[in-house]
Design brief:
Blueprint (H helix, E strand, L loop, with lengths): L1 H11 L4 E6 L6 H8 L3 E3 L34 H14 L1 E8 L4 E9 L5 E5 L7 H6 L3 E7 L3 H14 L5 H24 L3 E3 L1 H11 L2
Parallel strand pairs: 1-5, 1-6, 2-5, 6-7
Antiparallel strand pairs: 3-4
Helix pairs in contact: 2-7, 5-6
Length: 211
């Protein structure tokens, strides 16, 4: 009898849904996600390990031969969707902890939604899961966070240097390449269903969703 009551209570709960924050690295996704006060699923934790033989590599240019960490093939979208669906269904999931400096996963942690009916999923490849989330009926909103390319470049470079993510020269060269590629990144996210907004616009709309 008690099990039946628990099932009935679960059915009475409003469905949990995800707010996706996509956009260029350094655009302010992580800061915006924290500002919402919602539980946050960091999609960048679903990178492949650095010794994965399927990782894509850069062809041509000053950093040719290096792993292309800005290519979607360096990421595990299926694993990310398993976590998102578990959060929407159960309100809890296990999430890997990725250490960028070590190029690999370094443990796991448990993410619980508690009473929250929405959570944020953010990362540079977040746009890739927008169609699947929409198809499954678990998408609350999808935004491509963007700022002026020079602002994004400077924020990304200072962050990456502060966190010692890679050698400084690599970070500078990568940053310049991403600066030139920002328009394409935004256009791609929009093509997958994310709406281009500034961090302030996204924050205002998310605040409205939570009222």
């Amino acid at each position: 009898m008690r099990e039946r009551e628990v099932e009935d209570e679960a059915h009475d709960q409003p469905p949990r849904r995800v707010i996706v924050l996509a956009g260029p690295s350094g655009a302010g996704k992580s800061r915006l996600a924290e500002r919402t006060g919602l539980p946050v699923l960091r999609l960048d934790d679903f990178y492949k390990d650095g010794d994965d033989p399927t990782l894509p590599h850069i062809h041509g240019g000053a950093i040719a031969g290096m792993v292309d960490w800005d290519h979607p093939d360096s990421w595990l979208p299926d694993d990310a969707m398993v976590a998102i669906e578990a959060l929407c269904r159960d309100g809890v999931t296990k999430v890997p902890v990725y250490d960028i400096a070590r190029n690999g996963r370094h443990g796991v942690h448990t993410l619980e939604l508690g009473a929250a009916q929405c959570f944020v999923a953010e990362g540079i490849f977040a746009a890739e899961i927008v169609p699947a989330c929409a198809e499954r009926g678990i998408l609350a909103a999808a935004y491509c966070v963007r700022q002026h390319p020079l602002v994004t470049f400077w924020r990304r470079l200072t962050r990456d240097l502060r966190e010692h993510r890679k050698p400084p020269l690599v970070l500078l060269r990568r940053g310049l390449a991403l600066l030139r590629d920002q328009r394409r990144v935004v256009d791609h996210a929009v093509s997958l269903g994310a709406r281009p907004v500034t961090p302030e616009q996204a924050y205002a709309e998310i605040s409205g969703l939570l009222r």
